[in-house]
Amino acid sequence: QVQLAESGGGLVQAGGSLRLSCAASGSIFSINDMGWYRQAPGKQRELVATITSGGSTNYADSVKGRFTISRDNAKNTVYLQMNSLKPEDTAVYYCNADVVAGIIAYNAWGQGTQVTVSS
């Protein structure tokens, strides 16, 4: 069983910064794409950013230029540096990973971490 554990959420004023971390643990053979998604109250979950095992990145238009996704493959960890935060960034942020454990490949989710940006 593989688990994803997020940390780093919290309350910040508009214009501030936060760094989210997500560490994968368990019987991991390899991890392909990793990413961050978010879900605001009353809205559907949406993609924020993804990163391949080789380091190629993809961002939602709403966060381009403000957020940076990175990963440490040796630590099975993905990060999301969030700068110039806006109230509309308020949401629960979820980590996601395409994991290979033994001969089984599956998509795993973290439990989520709350990010609140005050105006």
Walk me through this protein's architecture.
- By secondary structure, this protein is an all-beta fold.
- Helices cover 0% and strands 61% of the residues.
- It contains no helices and eleven strands.
- Strands 2, 4, 5, 6, 9, 10 and 11 form a seven-stranded mixed β-sheet that branches. A four-stranded antiparallel β-sheet has the order 1-3-8-7, with no helix packed on it.
- Strand 9 and strand 10 (104-109) form a beta hairpin.
- It is elongated and about 45 Å long.
- The mean pLDDT is 96.
Low-confidence stretches: none
Distance between the termini: 40 Å
Mean pLDDT: 96
Please indicate the percent range of residues in DSSP E strands (runs of 2 or more): over 45%
Number of strands: 11
Class by SSE composition: mainly beta
What is the ordering of alpha helices and beta strands?
A: EEEEEEEEEEE
What fraction, in percent, of the residue positions are helical? under 10%
Mind telling me the C-alpha Rg? 14 Å
Principal-axes shape call:
elongated
Blueprint of the fold:
Blueprint lengths: L1 E6 L2 E4 L4 E9 L3 E10 L6 E6 L5 E3 L7 E6 L4 E6 L8 E11 L2 E6 L3 E6 L1
Parallel strand pairs: 2-11
Antiparallel strand pairs: 1-3, 3-8, 4-5, 4-9, 5-6, 7-8, 9-10, 9-11
Short account of what is shown:
0% of the residues lie in helices and 61% in strands.
Descriptive labels:
about 120 residues, mainly beta, seven-stranded mixed sheet, four-stranded antiparallel sheet
